[in-house]
Fold these 3 entries.
Entry 1:
Amino acid sequence: MKWTISQLQKFRDKNLQIDEFVDVSDIKEREKQILGVSPMHVTGKADVTSARATFHLHISGELILPCSRTLVDVNFPINIDTTETFFLGADSALLEEDGVAVAKGEVVDLIPVITELLLLEIPMQVFCEDVNAEGAAPHSGKDWSVVSEEELQQKVDPRLAKLANFFDNDKES
């Protein structure tokens, strides 16, 4: 996922198609929460002009993260759509734009950009939804169960059930 500026300039009037698997396993050293990384499938295209290279990418793969409740390994799917622009010249006015990176030397490297995008996708908490997984947190027990927010909103507190018809009685009188 590295190109020199001269290699990119060959695609100035054509689209550069991208379809590669990228190994970003070194991300585990930057973020200790990541237990494993599948090879990331990067697809997309690049639009190249004399001054810029704009990459329209889709990144997909999986991260293995610990469950926030039980520390069981959880496969967390990654699906990122992004547009990254690299400035190929030395004009400082364009350096202030948001979302524009500068090519380091004569090379455009997408691996650091992909790594940063993956780090931004890591959630604060991830939960193991598979009840049958070894070491997973149980979803029910004696006199308790995990209730979703929708179920909780639909359920009426039995202590207040009679108040639901309070205003109906006023209208009948």
Entry 2:
Amino acid sequence: MLTRVRITKYTHSCVRLEHDGGATLIIDPGVWSEPEALTGADAVLVTHEHNDHVDLLRLKGLGVPVYAPKSARLPGLDFTGVVPGEEFTAAGFRVTAQGGQHARIYGGLPDCANLGYLVENSVYHPGDSLCPPDRPVETLLVPLQGSWMKTDEAIDLVRAVQPERAYGIHDGQINERGLGSLNGWLADACGDCYRWLPPGSSAR
């Protein structure tokens, strides 16, 4: 399990995981996330090809290993393709890829690969999916809003997983009133495990 890992939330779906020993892993640094999220990164995980989860221009010049779904369309970006069920090491973190497909929006679209990443069997980031991890986790990163989801689905995910702690992500299109409402629903329905981290704030 992860020990003494710092989780820092950035705008929308981007999170930064840091070991006390110095290794840094970034998940989903999209075009809406702050550039400083990538400072000192040792590796990057991309859940899927949409630009709110991957900023191609930044990653092309970063010079660190990038892992993404094998079928992802990421023009000009050198990355290691990953498939569901694959286990690998990124920046010294043990990672298992889960899920496989982006949640459906309308008419079967978008039809692109989406991987959830389980890091050290402890922290789970589902990307644009509400697919639960295949084992218990300590920390769940739960999407709050998207054209592909409803609020009750976020609540159901937290209740199904029953993590020790859950932090809201995928919130970049919500205004303050909407964010307050969603956080209230999650806190009321999921109990003390749920918390929202403002961009730039951290937790362990």
Entry 3:
Amino acid sequence: MKIGQRRSKQRELILEELKGLTCHPTADELYERVRKRLPNISLGTVYRNLELMADNGVILKIETSGKNRFDGTAEPHPHIRCLQCGKVDDVMNEAPPPEISETEARGYDVKGCSIEYFGYCPECRTKVH
């Protein structure tokens, strides 16, 4: 198998694993899952492919103060993040993010929208209170 084909197969497998999850894993967490199916894959390969897919709009990268998390659903949608453990979940909301006019954008070249709620997940909430 040629190098380009191997990279493409690795990327497809990473994407398949990510899309099969309802959680929003870190690259390290996803690496552990992918490695079960592709034992010779490196952590660096997983990181590079996730960054490439996020840069190309195939997946979402959720930037946090800790480790970034990744979402197999590329369309912008709200998330909720636990302040204690960093877990990220989707917030189901029927309304799409509002479009803004050039005037509202104050001259910015808008590339996306991120809505994030934060609090304590059910597991951490019992520890905090």
